[in-house]
């Protein structure tokens, strides 16, 4: 398939990017190439590197197809793969900061990313300042002479703050710093990171790209400004993704558009229902008009996905356990982005150092999967009945 003749929508790009049947005897999906060693026809060819594929860790048709697809969808100069979302965050950070460098990170960042910076990152000599994700252009005041990068995550992990990425990018670039974004929630389908000034767009492709909870993988797409550093560090670190996992991610990518549409529709239905429940004090979902950054979300995003949170009214933890433990359609588990709905409790107070979390109720995060939304609501309704029972006994 010739992918370069037409300027097409993201949905069409998703269906065709990285697909080259002419290279694989007409098969629309590239075969899975497992292997480490690639042989050369001559010493000269080997010494000069005059061969498309030279070693399994460096590249193969399976990983190359996914990189091409991600890079095309992101509008990036290039893309690399990592064995997990966290690995992608760490790889992106280490490609642009090192010993003695300073990085700005939102207080709402994914907890494992924070943990890396506070432990291994600190040992490596990286200096980190956590900032209020709502800071916008005010981030200019936080730059130091050694600030090399600004990390962003929008929406924020668990609490879904929308950051003003264009304003932050403008400030960062004025100070000669690069901008990194964990774009897992929106994906490039709903937020074009590089178009909004981001230099390294990161995804835990484990989530919506794979879409079926059967592989771990991360992706990083780079602007022309950041690509040389990313490409070099990714090679230097020996980071590698198996062709089997790359194949699962490429397969999942093909249905990203239709899956996210369903996730969004069902999540909005559940979120609106939650807002009407007496047991709920607040629903946190950027797609709702009640979200404090809804106007910013409408300005920059083209959609919302299936992950949201809500805060219960003040209640004993036993009531929350009664609500969640016996849900039939929501599993209790980490991660998200698959076809199945999930639930978990979160305490933001354990993950914040710059901002404060003052809600009296319990924060519960839901991933709304591909089940029927009314069935999910019925499951939650029974859970709230159990919640009320415990509250009345307390």
TrEMBL record:
UniProt key word Transmembrane: no
Reactions accelerated catalytically: an S-substituted L-cysteine + H2O = a thiol + pyruvate + NH4(+); L,L-cystathionine + H2O = L-homocysteine + pyruvate + NH4(+)
Cofactor entry: pyridoxal 5'-phosphate
Pathway the protein contributes to: Amino-acid biosynthesis; L-methionine biosynthesis via de novo pathway; L-homocysteine from L-cystathionine: step 1/1
The keyword Lyase belongs to this UniProt entry's keyword annotation: yes
Gene3D superfamilies xref list: Aspartate Aminotransferase, domain 1 (3.90.1150.10), Type I PLP-dependent aspartate aminotransferase-like (Major domain) (3.40.640.10)
Enzyme Commission number(s) of this protein: 4.4.1.8
Entry-linked InterPro entries: Cys/Met-Metab_PyrdxlP-dep_enz, Cys_b_lyase_bac, Cys_met_metab_PP, PyrdxlP-dep_Trfase, PyrdxlP-dep_Trfase_major, PyrdxlP-dep_Trfase_small
Enzyme class: lyase
Cited Pfam families: Cys_Met_Meta_PP
Keywords in alphabetical order: Lyase, Pyridoxal phosphate
GO molecular function, one term: lyase activity
Protein family: Belongs to the trans-sulfuration enzymes family.
Designated name of the protein: Cystathionine beta-lyase
Organism whose genome encodes this protein: Pseudomonas qingdaonensis
Gene: metC
């Amino acid at each position: 398939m010739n992918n370069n003749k037409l300027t097409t929508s993201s949905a069409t790009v998703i269906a065709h990017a990285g697909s080259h049947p002419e290279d694989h005897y007409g098969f629309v999906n590239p075969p899975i190439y497992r292997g480490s060693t690639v042989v050369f026809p001559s010493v000269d060819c080997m010494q000069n590197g005059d061969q498309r594929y030279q070693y399994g860790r460096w590249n193969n048709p399976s990983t190359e197809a996914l990189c091409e697809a991600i890079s095309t969808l992101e509008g990036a100069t290039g893309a690399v793969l990592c064995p997990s979302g966290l690995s992608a965050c760490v790889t992106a950070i280490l490609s642009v900061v090192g010993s003695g460098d300073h990085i700005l990170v939102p207080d709402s960042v994914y907890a494992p990313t924070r943990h890396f910076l506070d432990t291994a990152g600190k040992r490596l000599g990286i200096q980190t300042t956590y900032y209020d994700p709502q800071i916008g252009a005010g981030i200019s005041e936080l730059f130091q002479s050694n600030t090399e990068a600004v990390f962003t995550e929008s929406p924020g992990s668990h609490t879904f703050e929308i950051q003003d990425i264009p304003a932050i990018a403008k400030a960062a670039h004025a100070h000669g710093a690069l901008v990194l974004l964990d774009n897992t929630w929106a994906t490039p389908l709903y937020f074009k990171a590089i178009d909004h000034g981001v230099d390294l767009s990161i995804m835990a492709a484990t989530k919506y790209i794979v879409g079926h909870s059967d592989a771990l993988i991360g992706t990083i797409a780079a602007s022309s400004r950041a690509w040389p550093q990313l490409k070099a560090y990714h090679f230097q670190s020996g980071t590698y993704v198996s062709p089997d996992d790359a194949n699962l991610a490429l397969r999942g990518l093909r249905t990203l558009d239709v899956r996210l549409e369903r996730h969004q529709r069902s999540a909005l239905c559940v979120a609106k229902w939650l807002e009407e429940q007496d047991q709920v004090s607040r629903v946190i979902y950027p797609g709702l008009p009640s979200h404090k950054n809804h106007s910013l979300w409408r300005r920059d995003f083209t959609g919302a996905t299936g992950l949201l949170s809500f805060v219960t009214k003040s209640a004993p933890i036993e009531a929350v356990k009664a609500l969640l433990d016996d849900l039939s359609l929501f599993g209790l588990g980490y991660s998200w982005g698959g076809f199945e709905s999930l639930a978990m409790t979160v305490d933001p107070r354990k993950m914040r150092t710059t901002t404060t979390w003052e809600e009296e109720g319990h924060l519960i995060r839901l991933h709304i999967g591909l089940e029927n939304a009314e069935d999910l609501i019925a499951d939650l309704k029974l859970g709230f009945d159990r919640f009320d029972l415990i509250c009345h006994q307390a």
